């Protein structure tokens, strides 16, 4: 679980305070905690920043630290610094599919740069073609670019998880105007939930 992962990373940094990657990953998970209701937005910013700073002071070329820093800036509403931190993460880990996926999400949902998001997620998929979460972002980028049929193909080829089925239901209802398919797909989601 999320809390257990945080606990294990807290133990890791207690055992080795100079373990930069553990500090970076811990900051990342702490920032996620606001989504899970574990901490408030204000608390995650206060709790995560010391781990980011420590990780940077220990090892300044670690992509995971810049990913956490980008998330921290994003939580703070600092768009330009968010993009700079993602670019730094890519500089230190140019073939990191997860960084590319996060950057694609940033372009898609925060910058409304849909073609750039699509180009970026395609790079991530070329590195890691088996990632389900990257293909979900690909489908979102395709929808944003008006490529509904391509998005449908991507989603149909993914596992029938509630998230994928919700995306497919929205695509049918709003993008392709196939309302009977949207209703059937939504019923599948409800059966899983």
Write a brief structural summary.
The protein is mainly α.
Q: What keywords describe this structure?
A:
single chain, 193 residues, 11 helices, mainly alpha
Overview of this structure, please?
This protein is mainly α and 193 residues long. 79% of the residues lie in helices and 0% in strands. It has helices at residues 2-15, 20-36, 41-58, 63-75, 79-92, 97-109, 114-127, 132-144, 148-156, 162-175, 179-192. It is globular and about 55 Å long. It starts with a helix and ends with a helix. The mean pLDDT is 86.
Mean pLDDT: 86
In whole angstroms, the N-to-C terminal distance is 19 Å
Helix fraction, binned, reads: over 70%
For the largest beta-sheet, the strand count, sense and barrel status come to:
none
Task: Summarize the helix and strand pattern as letters.
Answer: HHHHHHHHHHH
Shape label? globular
Beta percentage is under 5%
Radius of gyration: 18 Å
The total strand number stands at 0
Structural class: mainly alpha
- Unreliable segments (pLDDT under 50, ≥5 consecutive)? none
Task: Supply the number of helical segments.
Answer: 11
């Amino acid at each position: 679980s999320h809390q257990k992962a945080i606990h294990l990373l807290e133990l890791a940094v207690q055992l080795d305070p100079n373990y930069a990657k553990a500090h970076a990953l811990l900051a990342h998970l702490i920032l996620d905690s606001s989504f899970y209701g574990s901490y408030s937005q204000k608390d995650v910013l206060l709790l995560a920043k010391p781990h980011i700073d420590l990780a940077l002071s220990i090892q300044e070329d670690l992509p995971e630290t810049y990913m956490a820093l980008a998330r921290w800036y994003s939580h703070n509403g600092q768009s330009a610094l968010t993009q700079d931190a993602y670019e730094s993460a890519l500089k230190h880990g140019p073939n990191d599919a997860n960084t590319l996926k996060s950057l694609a999400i940033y372009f898609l949902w925060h910058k409304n740069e849909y073609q750039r998001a699509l180009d970026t997620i395609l790079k991530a998929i070329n590195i890691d073609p088996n990632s389900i979460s990257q293909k979900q972002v690909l489908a979102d980028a395709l929808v944003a670019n008006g490529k509904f049929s391509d998005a449908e193909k991507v989603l149909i080829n993914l596992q029938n998880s509630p998230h994928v089925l919700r995306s497919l239901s929205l695509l049918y209802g709003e993008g392709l105007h196939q309302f009977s398919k949207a209703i059937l797909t939504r019923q599948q989601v409800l059966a899983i939930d």
